[in-house]
């Protein structure tokens, strides 16, 4: 995370340190995205899950859904292995099996036996690369049901449990799963929408990020404005964005402190590139007085789970 944190230097503009509530900051709903312009397109979505097995062994699983003109599918990485241990390209003319299973051997120090079962034959998509229903991906590690994605996995799980019992294992182990982070790459314009769940017990929230040009001083000049909305309520509004191109602000979501950090420098001052902006939502404990701690100075409960949503936005129009 340090490469991203370095974007937010000590000289960055700090819009506000005051905490605000999503429900009380503004009762004015954001302008409907459909009335402005079509939202940006998601190119890839990467979710990082922490699995704690019954043996107390911890495994980090990164699931990436991607879509481009020539490629659509997913990759699965275990404990940051490179290259990914599992890869599917559903756009390839050689790919015909949208349902199947595969047994793999992790090459890291744990040497875990991994089995992946998937069914994308009836998967339904919306605007992004990640299916929303009619699919499942099940990951089994060392004969323990680990990560289960999708809404059609029940039959696979029942079958595996019966298989475990036939092998004289009456207790079907289930790993403890936590979603640590979600990274989204998008391209298009300066309007982006997504959904986020900031804690395992919280609800899913609609998140909208919009950069527009508005009149100031009774229309004497125009200035870019950054607006962030959660569930159609404005939680952050940054005027004169070309000056306040980096900053942070704290909001409350589901009773949690959530730090929102933004860096849109390249949108204004890097004409040689396509112009990437970075937005990060990250939960933190109320005991933390600073946004970021060095690992050696962090004193946190080893069982506590924080969540971060990282958005890379490439403005192409």
Explain the layout of strands and helices:
Layout: H1 2-5, E1 19-21, E2 41-52, E3 58-67, E4 72-78, E5 86-89, E6 99-105, E7 113-119, E8 136-141, E9 144-150, H2 154-166, E10 176-188, E11 191-196, E12 205-216, E13 221-230, E14 233-238, E15 246-253, E16 256-263, H3 265-269, E17 276-284, E18 308-315
Parallel strand pairs: 1-15, 10-18
Antiparallel strand pairs: 2-3, 2-10, 3-4, 4-5, 6-7, 7-8, 8-9, 11-12, 12-13, 13-14, 15-16, 16-17, 17-18
Highlighted features:
four-stranded antiparallel beta sheet, DUF868_pln, disordered N terminus, mainly beta, elongated, ten-stranded mixed beta sheet, single chain, 317 residues, 18 strands, 3 helices, 2 domains
Question: Mind summarizing the main beta sheet?
Answer: 10 strands, mixed
Q: Provide the structure class.
A: mainly beta
- Share of helix, binned: under 10%
**Count of individual helical segments:** 3
How many structural domains are formed by the residues? 2
Total DSSP E strands: 18
Strand content: over 45%
Radius of gyration: 22 Å
Average of pLDDT:
76
* Largest sheet, spatial ordering of strands: 1-15-16-17-18-10-2-3-4-5
Termini separation: 29 Å
Please mark out the parts with pLDDT under 50 across 5 or more consecutive residues, or reply none: 1-36, 294-302
The geometry reads as: elongated
Q: Helix-strand pattern, N to C? A: HEEEEEEEEEHEEEEEEEHEE
Protein name: DUF868 domain-containing protein
Pfam families: DUF868
InterPro entries: DUF868_pln (IPR008586)
Organism: Glycine max
